[in-house]
């Protein structure tokens, strides 16, 4: 197998796990947050900056890279690692979520999904086999099986048909995957908010014996309590000796709640997206630095942060940059937000190690303004 999960410790106060994920491009300490580099770049960040803030693995997006610049060109360049000058691990999603997010611009069949590009309206078709072909060309360390992500809410019959199609597509993905020694293919558990359907999805995917499993179809608009409930009964069904990945979560509370339920990996565009709007994550909660109240605030974004931004620049200066549309402002808020979440995950790993994760969560929530 291209990747191997090493379980180092189980928490005594929750289902949290401390581990290492061995990949062809390096070892990842888990639990981990993965910055999203949709189009072969984490927005505004250089690879060196990503490493400096503690990024261990980044994501690429199959749908976007297929459309531009094209997977053939990236393959010609020597793969995604060389193309973007990142020598650490890379995970690529299957493109499924983006395709299904197109709504009226796509048509689902058993064979795959026909869709129109959001860029120019051109017609395209991605099947499970095509998704694997693209990801093989990209050369990511971890690839995702092509799945159907049911929207929330969806009725039971739709979700059941959707998860069963996802299983059939997972089989086709596995059969199409030819680079098993250098790229690991993860299966994606679906089933919506229905317990028995989640159990069915896990059971069917376990028969295919993937080297890792993702929980998909969450953080799609459902209440946080419902997401946690689904994780409560889904995560324990997944193999203890393989990594568990919750797709699409990145707020501090979602990361905590996922980890205490046994999740090892998570990703989200949240930290970079809100950074572009002048919003930053701090130990005291979210702060909208572009607001007028910070015009003469010469303190740093977060009094407890030691990132490059907080060491060197004030709220007043960053507010000025953002309000006059200077690129540096967004770079500084992005550096801070990513550093904040990566440092949070580092602290979470330490808390698991010291058997005080639930205590740390309570301390963090109290300062941040969450209720436990």
Explain how this protein is built:
This protein is α/β, with parallel strands linked by helices and 372 residues long. The protein is 41% helix and 19% strand. It has an 8-stranded parallel sheet. α7 (156-176) links the parallel β10 (142-144) and β11 (184-189). α6 packs across α7. The longest helix has 27 residues, at 327-353. The chain is globular and about 60 Å long. The two termini are 40 Å apart.
Radius of gyration, rounded?
20 Å
How far the N terminus sits from the C terminus, by CA atoms, comes to 40 Å
Mean pLDDT: 97
Report the β-strand fraction as a percent range.
Answer: 15-25%
Low-confidence stretches: none
Q: Number of helix segments?
A: 15
Structural class, please?
Answer: alpha/beta
Shape: globular
Helix content: 40-55%
How many runs of DSSP E, i.e. beta strands? Answer: 16
Order of the strands making up the biggest sheet: 4-14-13-12-11-10-6-5
Largest sheet: 8 strands, parallel
């Amino acid at each position: 197998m291209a990747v191997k999960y090493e379980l180092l410790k189980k928490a005594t106060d929750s289902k949290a796990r401390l581990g290492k994920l061995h990949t062809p491009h390096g070892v990842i300490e888990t639990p981990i947050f993965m910055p999203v580099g949709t189009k072969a770049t984490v927005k505004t960040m250089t690879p060196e900056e990503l490493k400096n803030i503690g990024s261990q693995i980044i994501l690429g997006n199959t749908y976007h890279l297929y459309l531009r610049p094209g997977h053939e060109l990236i393959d010609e360049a020597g793969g995604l690692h060389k193309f973007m000058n990142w020598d650490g691990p890379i995970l690529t999603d299957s493109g499924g979520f983006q395709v299904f997010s197109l709504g009226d611009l796509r048509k689902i069949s058993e064979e795959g999904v026909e869709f129109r590009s959001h860029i120019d309206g051109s017609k395209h078709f991605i099947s499970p086999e095509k998704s694997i072909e693209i990801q093989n060309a990209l050369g990511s360390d971890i690839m995702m099986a092509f799945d159907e992500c049911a929207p929330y809410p969806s009725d039971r019959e739709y979700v059941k048909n959707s998860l069963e199609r996802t299983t059939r597509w997972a089989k086709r993905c596995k059969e199409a995957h030819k680079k098993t020694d250098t790229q690991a293919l993860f299966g994606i558990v679906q089933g919506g908010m229905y317990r028995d359907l989640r159990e069915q999805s896990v059971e069917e995917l376990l028969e295919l014996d993937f080297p890792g499993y993702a929980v998909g179809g969450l953080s799609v608009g459902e209440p946080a309590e419902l997401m946690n409930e689904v994780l409560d009964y889904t995560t324990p069904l997944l193999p203890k000796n393989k990594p568990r990945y919750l797709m699409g979560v990145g707020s501090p509370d979602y990361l905590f709640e996922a980890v205490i339920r046994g999740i090892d990996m998570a990703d989200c565009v949240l930290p970079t997206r809100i950074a572009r709007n002048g919003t930053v994550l701090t130990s005291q909660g979210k702060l909208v630095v572009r607001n007028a109240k910070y015009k003469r605030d010469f303190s740093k974004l977060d009094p407890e942060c030691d990132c490059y931004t907080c060491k060197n620049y004030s709220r007043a200066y960053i507010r000025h940059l953002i309000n006059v549309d200077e690129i540096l402002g967004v770079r500084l808020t992005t550096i801070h937000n990513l550093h904040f979440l990566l440092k949070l995950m580092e602290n979470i790993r330490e808390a698991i190690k010291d058997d005080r994760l639930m205590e740390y969560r309570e301390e963090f929530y109290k300062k941040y303004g969450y209720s436990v």
